[in-house]
Amino acid sequence: MCGIAGIIYKNGGGEHRIGRDITSMLQAMKHRGPDSSGFALYGQPTTDLVLRIKLADANTARDLDFADDLRRHRAEIEARLRAAGAHIHEIQDVNEHTLSVKLSYDGDLKRLADHVESVAGAEVLSAGHALEIIKDLGDAKTVAGGYDLDSYVGSHGIGHVRMATESDVDISNAHPYWAYPFSDVAVVHNGQLTNYHQWRRRLERSGHRFASECDSEIIAVYLAQKLQTGSTLEQAMRESLDDLDGVFTYICVSEDALGMAKDDLAAKPLVLYEGDDMVVLASEEMAIRAVLDHEIETYDPYEGTVMVWTR
Amino acid sequence: MDAVSGAGEARGAGEARYDARGLVELDEVIPRISEIEGDHATLDAHDLTTRRINLELRWLLYEQGIRRVTVLNPGARHSLGAGILTRCEITFQGSLGYFACGIIDGPEVHITGRVGWSACENMMSGVVTIDGNAGSLMGAGLRGGDVVVKGQVGSRTGIVQKGGTIIVLGSAGSMTGFMMQRGRQILCGDVGPGLGDSMYEGTIYVAGKVSSLGIDCVPGELGDADTELIERKFRIHELGSPPAFEKFVCGKKLYNYDNLEPSERKLVL
Lengths: 311, 269
What we know:
- The structure holds two protein chains of two kinds.
- By secondary structure, chain A is of the alpha+beta class.
- Chain A has two domains: 3-45 and 130-310, Aminohydrolase, N-terminal nucleophile (Ntn) domain (Glutamine Phosphoribosylpyrophosphate, subunit 1, domain 1, 4-Layer Sandwich), CATH 3.60.20.10; 46-129, 2-Layer Sandwich (Alpha-Beta Plaits), CATH 3.30.70.1510.
- In chain A, 27% of the residues lie in helices and 30% in strands.
- In chain A, strand 4 and strand 5 form a beta hairpin.
- By secondary structure, chain B is α/β, with parallel strands linked by helices.
- Chain B has a single domain (35-268), classed as Glutamate synthase, alpha subunit, C-terminal domain (Pectate Lyase C-like).
- Chain B has three helices and twelve strands, in the order ββαβββββββββαβα.
- Chain B has helices at 50-63, 224-236, 262-268; strands at 35-37, 40-44, 68-72, 89-93, 105-111, 125-130, 146-149, 162-168, 182-187, 203-206, 217-220, 246-250.
- Chain B is globular and about 65 Å long.
- Mean pLDDT of chain B is 92; it is low at 1-12.
């Protein structure tokens, strides 16, 4: 089933407590997917690049060497980042299996990500000047608590609660997906894509890597490829309606925009509230009510709809 | 508000207990907190869980002899007002979530906000008036009664409808009236692609533009009986004067039920 949610403030202010708000929205939709929860949050853009890196999965077997391995892998990642030409400002151990690295880097982001991911077990969850992806097992409150999202401020963000159907329950298969290797773009998706393998082969041939077996990752990488060749987010999303098969509703975010797309069958829900200063959207109105506790006018966008808002 | 974990559940009977995954509310607790005046009751649902709201409604209607209930702050929760099987009047001041007023038999319901997916599913009789918009699958498997939506509806409205009347003042999405088997739909706005796809019987009236007709859905001839019906429904529900409608029915080209396979025919003869 899965539940998706998003908020964008149209007035551009970056001081909104989106971490707390997306958490309440996702928690209100816990019944749509209690397996894992994920967030893609946008703070104030900086000149630094922030990489969030997963060292191991939350449910990797903890054998006797586990802690040693993590330490070794962490050191290796640091060395490889430096070797790739990055100037590291800060490394934060968010928790046992997640790193957040602030760095300056002006080279090819794909090369940097590939350098990190050549370390065993490592995966770049997100890379961007404003974007941070946080995802882990459990409901939204558990994940938000573990990653201290309550105090996170920013301008827009998306979230996802997952009911795993086609792939494993672990962090790699949790949403949101970063649009590797394109900075600051992330996607959450509710649905099934039936031409996943076709697109995966096609995108792999053009050099993209896939971190999971989840069909939703295709959307992120597909959009990344379109953006790289000069499409706008809206153009890329419109083209995805023809190129992707199956049933899907997805929300995509970039550094300054948030967009939604719904397939021609309109089989996956999305409720939309558009106010003067903010847009809030989610699989169920209940989630919107979790952040706007008064009567509001909402509607379901129709089949084949693509809408994009900028902050 | 935190509808799932039941936080803030102070009134009535204390915190709601849930199963290990935090999804299923375990106890059957009737809050008994409605303000009752004669045969009218007002229920503030703000701090109540879905199950408690529905239990309170049943307690009021079945045990306290209340005929009119106003529910405040429904907060777009799912499954509210489902399975009410008696004549009564219920007003929801606000929006409801999925499966609103499903399998009801008798009530007159007024929802001042909107509803999510699958509202009035398998409704048997009564009237449901929705002032706002409705999600997809509105009136799925509807068997009787009238459903009036003053805003727009999503996709597949009245899928496998088996009776009753659906009236929509706004626009409707794709595959409206999909596999409809009986009943009527009066759609005042524009309608998405695949109208009446694979319908068996029933009638769809459309005042707006139809994007495309579904398989075996064909234009029909609008007669006096049709006009009379539309006018009567508009009068009953106080919807003003009706616009001009086109009628769509089943082309019956997919009707093969009576055609026996050659081998079967031999057997019968």
